[in-house]
């Protein structure tokens, strides 16, 4: 039990260091890549969601009018199926904004797939605030 906790904590510390290293050039504009999305999805899944998340069914890099990212649910009433698409912008102000946005959209995925929640910015959503803080991330609207 104790050992398990230690491993977990060390992973959080390692992840935090990695994020710091990755965002040290805070002024540099960031260009989104599928590779970064894939890598950080894995890292956040482990450090924030205990690996509970299934991947998004699809990932798109596109211009977004409202907000800086989106977790879009597509429902087929005919087939009775639903799937989730992550939409990220082609560019961000800096890498930190990219990471905050990706982690934010992953909380929405967690709400809707694991908790069967509305996926609104509600209490459940903001219950991740401290976990984000531990990684130097910021959870906001
Ligand atoms: Zn949101």
Descriptive report:
- The chain is of the alpha+beta class and 141 residues long.
- The chain has one domain (2-134).
- 48% of the residues lie in helices and 17% in strands.
- The protein has 5 helices and 5 strands; from the N terminus they run H-E-H-E-E-E-E-H-H-H.
- The chain has helices spanning 2-22, 34-49, 95-114, 123-126, 129-134; strands spanning 30-31, 58-61, 69-76, 81-88, 91-92.
- Strands 2-4-3 form a 3-stranded mixed sheet, with helices on one face.
- Strand 3 and strand 4 (81-88) form a beta hairpin.
- Helix 2 crosses helix 3.
- It is globular.
- It starts with a helix and ends in a 7-residue tail after the last helix.
- The mean pLDDT is 94.
- Bound molecules: zinc ion.
- Zinc ion binds at residues 104, 108, 121.
Short description:
The protein has 141 residues and is α+β, with helices and mostly antiparallel strands. The chain contains five helices and five strands, in the order H-E-H-E-E-E-E-H-H-H. It has one domain.
